[in-house]
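Training component of the fellowship. As part of building independent skills, the fellow (R.M.) carried out the full modelling exercise for a liganded target. The chosen ligand was pyridoxal-5'-phosphate. The inputs are recorded below so that the supervisory panel can assess the work.
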Amino acid sequence: MAESITLPERVLAAIALHRQASGDPMAAFFYDLPALDAQGRAMQAALPPGVELYYAIKANSEAAIIDTLAPHVDGLELSSGGEIARACACATPRPWVLSGPGKLDADMYDAMTRGVEAFHVESLGEVARLQAVAASLERVQPVLLRINPALPEDLSSRLRMAGTATPFGIDEAQLADAVRAVDDAANLRLVGFHVHAMSHQACERRHQRLLDAYLARWPRWRGLARHPEAVTQLNVGGGIGVNYLRPSEQFDWAGLCEALGQRLATMREPPRVRFEIGRFLAAFCGYYAIEVLDTKVSHGEGFLVCRGGTHQFRLPAAQGHDHPIIHLPRDPERARAGERRPWTVVGQLCTPKDVLSRRQALSGVAVGDLLVLPLAGAYGYNISHADFLCHPRPEQVFVGDSRNTREGSEPETRRRRPAEPVR
Ligand SMILES: *Cc1c(COP(=O)(O)O)cnc(C)c1O
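Fellow's submitted model of the complex:
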């Protein structure tokens, strides 16, 4: 059973307003922008001197989210032409890098003409294609090589992106060849290395040991280059985990930063270290609120059938976890007096996989009550298969959106109409 979380007042108020305005039972996302702002500010403030923080926008690329984080981060990490378009529309322009596997020539071209800072190159094939695009534009393009390092088993987290067979980056054994290929490419300039090896890292000590392992190899990696003095950047990726089941126990970001700062201070020629964080920046601000449509018991198990489901919030199904549930009864008195029993929370899809959380103990649940799933700001709606079964897309509500607030007035809550399905 997950512990309880309290909802911020402004989120509660936005949910109530939204509910009044919606005719049908509701399913919608609420993003607490002041909380997001505070998270960005706190993460930035904890960084050791000289260490940079980029936002990996694939975690949540809504304009209000990027605009809120932009003032607190040193730049954005992008992985597609679509993400380039979103970043370039940002109210506070930031430097940005293009990474990820399977870059199109058109994306490379687009990135160079729209001011990309650097590319994270994933393979020898990409080195050749990037050289051709840079040559066609007669420019010299800074690149970082993404490394798939060999890693000790005990440093592995739940989702490995490296140290094993993956489509990402260049195996350490082939790194010398890749460095030579970049050095030989007339229009490319090697400025550093990139490693994004783990996802869902829960433990700051282990993450520090992982960073230590990269830093120990840094002189060797750098020594492969024809001009090592020009190779100055080490991008250590993202991958800081969120504890979905015990929301009060979260990764000690400040502790990690402090240990990293101490470690860098011992190095003779430390690299310029950069993080590119997605989940840990964006997760905490999001809430998915759904209305109970039906209650039933089948073979002894209680089910709450709710508006929406995993086609709008795929995260718990993708992670295989039981998401924490906050119960907002229509009638709190009745709910307190009602029976407490375990409920499995499901959505409207005709598949047994449409499960958001299993066997959550709740008291006096009734049709018309709301359930709120917190920690929904990263990899929530945007990784979901929203058109499955032709349900309408959920609305996204940005609470405390100051972007269009006139001076002296309260920040507005901006609602974003669901996007038309992409055909
Ligand atoms: C997804 C991704 C990130 C961000 O990962 P989080 O776990 O969201 O912090 C950073 N870098 C690369 C290359 C990625 O693919």
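The panel noted the following from the submitted structure. The CA atoms of residues 76 and 401 lie 20 Å apart. Confidence is low (pLDDT under 50) at residues 404-409.
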